[in-house]
Amino acid sequence: MNILDKIVAYKREEVEKAKSLKSIAELEQLPLFEEPSFSLKRFLLDEKKTGIIAEFKRKSPSKGIINDKVKVSQITRAYASNGASGLSILTDEPSFGGSIDDMITARFNDVPILRKEFIIDEYQIVEAKAYGADVILLIAAILTPEQVHDFTLKAHELGLEVILEIHDDSELGHIQQRTDIVGVNNRNLKTFEVDIEQSIRLSHHIPENKIKISESGINSVQDILNLKSAGYNGFLIGENFMKQEDPGLAFMKFTSDLRDALV
Ligand SMILES: O=P(O)(O)OC[C@@H](O)[C@@H](O)c1c[nH]c2ccccc12
């Protein structure tokens, strides 16, 4: 079993447990459920923002502990106030050290929040909305095109946007007319191999009318410039900031260098 299979297996158990503790009807009663959403599409296209979706990630299966000393509130505030187009918050606990509480904490920021999770059940989409997300991730590698279709409808019904994550050309068929944003993950979730060229190669095959983001392994301003030339509107970056003692400060320096490079 590869890591993705393992995650999906425990995710099924987690979801069943969550359902038994709180019904969908109860989730729909939570205060954040009624709040309007921020549009990630709009924030990605906003010239005043950086296009960076900055991630809060304590650990990962490929890297182990990245940073377990920092606070979500402090880091997300620094990300948001320095031009992040969005915040990506891991809510998976076993592999990434995240939680739904992290997402609720990040919600005080007025920028779009991506629930970074392995979604395999509609329940998790209702949960995303009820606990403050604006966007969900659907990972093609663990879903059928039919599931992507149904989950996208559900997300839209709740006012959430959808990033469809693909890794290679075998997954292009998962992209649908309703897909808001296509994300190319440069990391193969089964082997952990990272290659930014994956985004460059796939860019020509993604329908022109889609907003495109590149995910994982982005470490430099030059990487962003290359991805922009290939037509990318957004850049999902975690480790490059999180591995620093002060990820907020690292983000600030990075965006200031990016702005200099763009003038
Ligand atoms: O830390 P990085 O290499 O900058 O990557 C961030 C993000 O792309 C990565 O965490 C990610 C992309 N897709 C995922 C799906 C599940 C968990 C994590 C991910």
Automatic annotation (TrEMBL):
Recorded coiled-coil stretches: none
EC supergroup of this enzyme: lyase
NCBIfam families in UniProt: PRK00278.2-4 (NF001377)
InterPro entries noted in UniProt: Aldolase_TIM, Indole-3-glycerol_P_synth, Indole-3-glycerol_P_synth_dom, Indole-3-GlycerolPSynthase_CS, RibuloseP-bd_barrel
E.C. number: 4.1.1.48
Gene Ontology molecular function: any one: indole-3-glycerol-phosphate synthase activity
Pathway(s) annotated for this protein in UniProt: Amino-acid biosynthesis; L-tryptophan biosynthesis; L-tryptophan from chorismate: step 4/5
Lineage: Bacteria, Pseudomonadati, Bacteroidota, Chitinophagia, Chitinophagales
Protein name: Indole-3-glycerol phosphate synthase
Pfam families membership: IGPS
PANTHER family hit by this protein: INDOLE-3-GLYCEROL-PHOSPHATE SYNTHASE, TRYPTOPHAN BIOSYNTHESIS PROTEIN
Native source organism of the sequence: Flavisolibacter tropicus
SUPFAM superfamilies listed in its UniProt record: Ribulose-phoshate binding barrel
Annotated Indole-3-glycerol phosphate synthase domain residues: 4-248
Keyword annotations: Amino-acid biosynthesis, Aromatic amino acid biosynthesis, Decarboxylase, Lyase, Tryptophan biosynthesis
Catalyzed reactions per annotation: 1-(2-carboxyphenylamino)-1-deoxy-D-ribulose 5-phosphate + H(+) = (1S,2R)-1-C-(indol-3-yl)glycerol 3-phosphate + CO2 + H2O
Any one GO BP annotation for this protein: L-tryptophan biosynthetic process
Family the entry assigns: Belongs to the TrpC family.
